[in-house]
Amino acid sequence: MFLSPVMTKAKKKAIVIGSGVGGLATAVRLARKGLEVTVFEANPSYGGKATKIEKDGFFWGFGPSLFTFPELLDELFQLCGRNPADYYHYHRLDPICNYFFPDGTRLSAFAQPEKFAAEIELKTGEPSSHVLAHLSKLKKVYLLTKDIFLFKSVHKLRSYLTLKSIQALFNISDIGINTNMNAANSRQFKDKRVVQLFNRYATYNGSDPYIAPSTLNVIAHPEYNQGGYFLDGGMPDLSRSLYQLACELGVEFKFNSQVQKINITGKTATGIFEKGILHEADIVVSNMDVVYTYQKLMPEQEAPAKIIEQPKSTSAIIFYWGINRQFPELDLHNIFFSGNYPREFDYLTNKKLIYSDPTVYVFISKKYQQQHAPASCENWFTLINVPHDEGQNWDELISEARKNILAKLKASLGVDIEPLIISETVNSPKTIGAKTLSHLGALYGSSSNNKYSAFLRHPNFSRKIKNLYFCGGSVHPGGGVPLCLLSAKIIDELIG
Ligand SMILES: Cc1cc2nc3c(=O)[nH]c(=O)nc-3n(C[C@H](O)[C@H](O)[C@H](O)COP(=O)(O)OP(=O)(O)OC[C@H]3O[C@@H](n4cnc5c(N)ncnc54)[C@H](O)[C@@H]3O)c2cc1C
């Protein structure tokens, strides 16, 4: 039989360096476009900071715990013709978080403005009208800024030429770039506990509420006006779902494969080197921290100094504790506030050390997932914010922090936690940096303490090297799972 030759157009090849949330979402989007995608991952598995830890019968997420903007994940699965419910499930939280203040006040935060405002008035005396006005302002700021700062490439002129962006510029005083978060919250609320609660949102991107522009108060908006969610299986399930979808779309994953160099021919990215072998590609996307991408993968290229030298965000010390008891007074998310928040941030930002009375966050996914801890036990993900790694003596700081955290929990709960710890794993800026190749162990790339921070994050594309793109928490629009998903969406649009 005579077969006529069929002219088949070779598929374009894309290489993604890293399989964090940004890398996984970008791989999915490029595969959906019909590209042949290979992901190189230095670790034995996917997920980066959104991976899991399993030990002694307990399960913890390595990093992220709160799930917001579920529609961004749903949108991605739907774009690929999938029903999200076939991959993952999530529940709206009510309450979202329990707050414990050193004076004994306990209050719950709800994703219903009226209910939350009533709870605040009941527990602190702050008029509910103040809370409602604040949440309504946050919604307005979010709607004014989201297209400029989150959903589009802030570095492309066309992003500014929309009706919404022009409206935003006309309403610049509402956006609040000329005052800091604490100053704005102190004007809004009489009660110091309420100010502290809303100041806390600076930590969601590793910033300092006493310096960061009050625009960042908007970080509280999704939680209260849209809802906080729990992803069944915890946040590692988000990575697992994206990985599954990527595999179904034909993405090839190479684990234990650290990329050594981006191959640049003239002014175009043409592949990567791994284990000394050149892998050619038409498009290269780096999900590696952008500072290291320049320093380690293309040291001969001139890095955009102003962007690369931006101060880094804070990091964290996390104790993943298996606790041999259950605590009905605790919920999924629990915050034990410092008695002196300004001092805590002075330590974090200026002294680059840890205050002896830190704010402690305890996340217990067992509250929603029985299989995350043995019967009558709980899996405590216990986190404090700490400075990024500047060569501090972390062994000493971890041991001091452990003592202070245990003392704080005992004072607040009236129970000595230490004898209940039957499993312990610890991460610190040094180990986070080493395990996820994040510059100085920062959780969110650069901090957002500067009012121009949004413009000082690296774009999702290279201005100098053709076919080179950047995704993940160290580049635009910033750190945190939803923003990493958005970085992939922006790349998708840039590639067209
Ligand atoms: C303790 C902690 C708590 C957090 N809490 C929250 C939260 O509650 N909510 C939230 O939204 N966010 C939270 N975050 C932040 C969130 O986890 C991150 O912003 C997000 O997961 C980062 O994803 P990424 O795409 O930047 O990739 P990363 O997670 O940084 O992963 C990058 C991946 O690339 C790989 N890689 C790097 N270089 C190379 C190379 N040269 N070759 C091959 N592979 C390479 C790394 O091994 C890694 O797997 C938290 C983070 C931590 C650590």
Protein described:
There is one protein chain. The chain is of the alpha/beta class and 496 residues long. It folds into three domains: 13-90 and 234-305 and 452-495, 3-Layer(bba) Sandwich (FAD/NAD(P)-binding domain); 114-224, no CATH class; 314-443, Guanine Nucleotide Dissociation Inhibitor, domain 2, CATH 3.30.519. Helix content is 34%, strand content 19%. The chain has helices spanning 21-32, 70-79, 113-124, 128-150, 163-170, 172-175, 181-188, 192-199, 220-226, 236-248, 290-297, 305-308, 341-351, 394-413, 429-436, 481-495, and strands spanning 13-17, 36-40, 52-55, 58-61, 90-92, 97-100, 106-109, 229-231, 252-254, 259-265, 268-274, 277-280, 283-286, 315-323, 333-336, 360-363, 378-386, 421-427, 468-470. The strands form five sheets. Strands 7-6-15-16-17-14-18 form a seven-stranded mixed β-sheet. Strands 9-2-1-13-19 form a five-stranded parallel β-sheet, covered by helices on one side. Strands 10-11-12 form a three-stranded antiparallel β-sheet, with no helix packed on it. Helix 3 (113-124) packs across helix 4 and helix 4 (128-150) crosses helix 9. The chain is globular. The structure holds flavin-adenine dinucleotide. Residues 17-23, 40-43, 48-50, 63-66, 258-259, 287-288, 316, 318, 383, 432, 436-438, 443-444, 472-473, 479-481, 484 line the site of flavin-adenine dinucleotide. Flavin-adenine dinucleotide binds at residues 17-23, 40-43, 48-50, 63-66, 258-259, 287-288, 316, 318, 383, 432, 436-438, 443-444, 472-473, 479-481, 484.
